[in-house]
């Protein structure tokens, strides 16, 4: 029984080799793509983290609906591991210009 089944499999592959090769290529491409994404994920994360550290970008952003006062900023500055604090303002605005409505986000550089 096993021998006949193997013969049938080999015969099907031999008679429809182009179909077999196409399916094999699609599966191989999918496996290669998936393993490539899996292997580069951690490298991409480490590269991004090294770039952010080199550019002194923020590690955390504190947002408050009512705003932060000077005591809050002093408390954040006093926390362990905080090198600097840069308080700033941001707001969303709607601008109407010649009948065109635009939504923009305004950021202050530093206060």
List keywords for this structure.
111 residues, alpha+beta, two-stranded antiparallel sheet, 2 strands, 55% helix, elongated
Description of the molecule:
The protein has helices spanning 2-15, 17-54, 70-78, and strands at residues 90-97, 100-107. It has a two-stranded antiparallel ribbon with strand order 1-2. It has 3 helices and 2 strands. It has 111 residues and is of the alpha+beta class. The protein is elongated.
In short:
This protein is of the alpha+beta class and 111 residues long.
Strand content: 5-15%
> Could you tell me the mean pLDDT?
89
Number of beta-strand segments: 2
Helix count from the secondary structure assignment: 3
Give the uncertain stretches in residue-range form. none
Radius of gyration equals 30 Å
Largest beta-sheet details: 2 strands, antiparallel
Shape category:
elongated
Strand-pairing-aware structural class: alpha+beta
In percent, how helical is the residue content? Answer: 40-55%
How are the strands of the biggest sheet laid out side by side? Answer: 1-2
Order of helices and strands: HHHEE
First-residue to last-residue Cα separation = 82 Å
Topology:
Layout: H1 2-15, H2 17-54, H3 70-78, E1 90-97, E2 100-107
Antiparallel strand pairs: 1-2
């Amino acid at each position: 029984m096993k021998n006949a089944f193997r013969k049938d499999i080999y015969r099907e592959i031999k008679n429809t080799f182009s179909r077999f090769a196409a399916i094999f290529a699609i599966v191989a491409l999918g496996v290669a793509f998936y393993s490539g994404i899996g292997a580069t994920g951690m490298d991409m994360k480490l590269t991004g983290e090294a770039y952010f550290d080199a550019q002194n970008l923020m590690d955390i952003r504190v947002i408050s609906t009512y705003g932060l006062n000077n005591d809050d900023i002093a408390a954040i500055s006093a926390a362990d591991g905080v090198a600097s604090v840069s308080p700033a303002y941001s707001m969303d605005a709607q601008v109407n210009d010649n009948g065109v409505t635009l939504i923009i986000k305004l950021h202050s550089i530093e206060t």
